[in-house]
Amino acid sequence: MDWLFLTEVSLAGIGAGGLYALTGLAFVLIYKATRVVNLAIGEILMVGAYVFFGFSAGLALPFWLAAPGTLLVSGLLGAGIERTLIRPMLGENPISIFMLTIGLGSILVGLVELVWGANPLRLPEFMPTQPLFLGEAYVSPKVATAFAVASLVVTAFLILFRFWRGGVALRATASDQAAAYSMGIDVPKVFSLSWVIACMTAGAAGMLVGAIGGISPTMGVFGLSVLVVVIVGGLDSVLGALIAGLAIGLLEALAGAFLGGEYKTLTTFSLLVLVLMVRPHGLFGTHEIERL
Amino acid sequence: MDAAARSPETATSNILEVRNIEVVFNHTVQVLRGLSLAVAAGSITALLGSNGAGKTTTMKAISGLLGLENGAVTGGEILFNGASTLNVKPHTLVRNGLFHVMEGRHVFEDLTVEENLTAATYARTGASARDFDRVYDYFPRLKERRKGLAGYLSGGEQQMLAIGRALVANPRIILLDEPSLGLSPLLTEEIFTIIARINAEQGTSMLVVEQNAAMAFAVATHAYIMETGRIVIDGPTERLARDPDVREFYLGIGEEGTSRDYRQVKHYKRRKRWLS
Ligand SMILES: Nc1ncnc2c1ncn2[C@@H]1O[C@H](COP(=O)(O)OP(=O)(O)O)[C@@H](O)[C@H]1O
Ligand SMILES: [Mg+2]
Fold it and tell me: ipTM score here?
C-alpha cells in the first residue's frame, strides 16, 4: 500500500468533510430551533456561491467587500424565507413544510439560471495557491484554507451557543418551545435568527465550495451529502454534524480513490443505513433524557 | 371600561384582574365561561378546582400562552397593573413582570441548571450574579447541581428550578400551576414553605393553582374555587376553611383523610405568621 497516497487522499477527504460539517451545522441550526427539515440547504449554499460570483466577478468588488456582501445577502435570504414561507406554515404537518423546502430549492435553482444561466462558472481566485505540504503529503491549498475557515466558524458557533445569552435562548427554544415563551424568550425572533445565521453559514460554505470546484446551478446536490451527514450525526446535534461531516468526507474520498468514483454514494448511503439500524436518532441525536 | 363596577379600592390594590373572560379552543370548544378573579398586590391567591375545570387554561389566558394551542380569549378583559394583557405578546408580559411557571415544570432538560436560569433572564436587562445567588439562597440544592443537566434533576429539584427561573426574572406576579404535581408530601411542604417565604421576603404576588387544597389554603389569603369554566365560590381562606361545603367537597378530598389535612392547615398558618 502507498502510504503517502493514502495520507493525501485522507487529508483531502477530511478537508472536504470540513465543508460538510459547516453546511451540516446550518441544517442542524434550523432543525434544532424550528424542527424544519430544510432540504433547500444545498440550494441556499448555491445561491451564496452565485451571489459571491455576482459581487466579485460581476461588480468586480474586492474580496473584503464581496465576502461580507455575500453573507449579508444570504442572511437576508434566510430572513425572507423564514418570514414569508416558513412562519405561516408553523403548526402545519411537518411533511408539508418538508415538501415546501424541496419546492423552494427548485425555485432557487430556477432563479439562478435566469440570472446567470445554466453553465458552470469559475469564481475569481481569492484563496492562496501555493502548494502546501504536511510532511511529505501534498494538500490542496484551497482545501486547506476552506477547512481552516470551516473550523473557525464551527468553533465560533460552539462558543456562542454556550456563552452568549442569545445562544442559550436558541437552545432553550429548541428544548421546549412553550417553556421558552413562558419565560420571556421572543420565540419568533429566535426562529428568524436561526434562519438568518444558518443561511449565512450556508452562503459562506457556498463561497468555499465554489472556490474549490467551481459553481453551477446543480451544485446544490452538495446538500444531498450534507443530508446524509446530519442523518448520521443526528438531526439536532451540532457535535454530530461535525464528527459525521469529517467521517463522511473521509469515507467518500477513500471510496472514490480505492474503489472508484461510482462507489462514493454507495458507501456513504450504506453507512447511513447501518447507523440508522443501530441508532435510529443518529449517532448523537437526542431523544428524551430518561430521568434516573 | 366600566368604572362603576370598580370600587376605587380594588382599582389600586389589585395587581391582576380577570373580568368575565371566555376562552375558546380551535374556534369550537368553550372552556371558560365568564370567569372573574382578582389578585391583590402582594398577596398569595389560590385557584382551586377539580381536574379539567379550566385552571391551567385560566393561567394561559393571563400569560398569553393560549395562542400556542389555538385557543383565544373571546370575551372579557384581563388587566395586569391596570393595563390590558390581551393582544400583548407573551415575552412582553414577562418583561412587564408577569411570569407563568407552567404545570409539569417544563425545565429545559438538555440545558444545565445555570443555563435554565440564564434563559429566564432573556426578557430583562441587567440580570447579575446577585440574581442567581438569590435563587441559590432559596434553593441551595440547585447551587450544588448548577453545572448539571436539568433533565437529570429529581422531580422536586426540577420544580425548584422552575420556580428559580421565575425568581431570576424578578417578576411582580408569579402564576404557579400545580407546584406539587407528582411530589411527595414532604417535598410539597418544602416547596410551599419557600413559596410563602418568597412572597413575604420579595413581595412577589402569586396566583397558585393547587390540587392539594389544604396546602393552598395554608399559604393563600384568598381563594377561588372553579368548576367547568367558572368560579363557584370565593373568599378569604380563613372563611372558606370553615365553610361546610368547602370542607366537604374540597378539603375532604385529600386521600389521607380530612383530619390530617386540617392539622397541616394549622401548621402552615402558624408557620406563615412566623415567617411574615
Ligand atoms: N389545547 C386545548 N384544546 C382543546 N381543549 C383543551 C385544550 N387545553 C385544555 N382543554 C380542555 O379544557 C378543559 C380545561 O382544561 P385545563 O385548563 O387544563 O384544566 P385544569 O388545569 O383545571 O385541570 C379540559 O376539558 C380540557 O380538555
Ligand atoms: Mg391544569
Answer: 0.84
